[in-house]
Amino acid sequence: MALKHAQRERVLAQGLTRMTWTFDPLIARNARLNLGKLGARAVSYHADWYALGDDPATAFPADRLMIEWDLTRPSEAHPPPAPDGEVALSAVPEGEEPDAPRLKLDSPQVLAEVPRKAELMNEPLRLLWRLALRAVLGEYLGRGYVVTDLAADGERVYYVLTRT
What we know:
The protein contains 3 helices and 7 strands. It has about 160 residues and is α+β, with helices and mostly antiparallel strands.
């Protein structure tokens, strides 16, 4: 938080009003910082932003969400809201793997579950989540939604996608 706010002050002093960067959509703690604490929003999804390995054909996919931070708006951290919206992605009941994505929802607000600690999952399970998130976030952001927050319900967390 302190680093991002220091960057914000330097950028504002240069006369700029917006910062952008990317982060891994599988890492929920980064989503919490970017969306819930800084008040930024994710505006685009980038599959295979870069490869995590020597051979891009076999490397674990390194997808990224592009964050946009409007520096003219006050940045106030808030607790994670309760999930509210139609669920486009969630874990299967009584399981850890993602259920089939629902890509045809048309609600003003859609939810996409992300594992709270994907970085601790084995690679095959993490890959299932990467590909499910890729499908959901790519589809909805491509249709004009933006990721505006990270909601929580106990140990489960969800991206909040809001139609603009």
